[in-house]
Amino acid sequence: MFRLRANFARPLVRSYMKHNANPQIYLxxxxxxxxxxxxxxxxxxxxxxxxxxxxxLTPESPIPVxxxxxxxxFTPLIDKLFATHIYDDFTFxxxxxxxxxCYMPIYDFRAPPxxxxxxxxxxxxxxxxxxxxxxIVEGSWQENFMYRVVNxxxxxxxxxxxxxxxxxxxELVE
Length: 174
Known about the structure:
Helices cover 19% and strands 24% of the residues.
């Protein structure tokens, strides 16, 4: 007779770590030299991109521009999400009140500009039109093709509202 044995004693191992420089970022090691970078703790979620490294990975490790490859699926996804959800972001609704009658930059929070200053061009996700009453005009989103997911200031950082929207969508798309 045959005896079947199940191995239920496999240890549960967390397959990610949070990046210390940006707590929105989850690092999912793919191999000893490659790491998937994501806004989600779920390994199957759409990744921001991958990071190639030669030394052992730690949560303190900086993500250098030249070692990061943006996921080609991520850029159009985030643009679509900004185009449809930025109008509900209280952070930028509040800021719109001080920018009536112009296009206002929607910027990355990795290096927020000093009040009244324009952010660096590679830190701007895109622009929205603000009407003369200081309200964001829906449907006015314009993508900034010069935006960089990783630059000398680090990897992208979103407002709380957009983080929630992007994380949820990345987990749905897989």
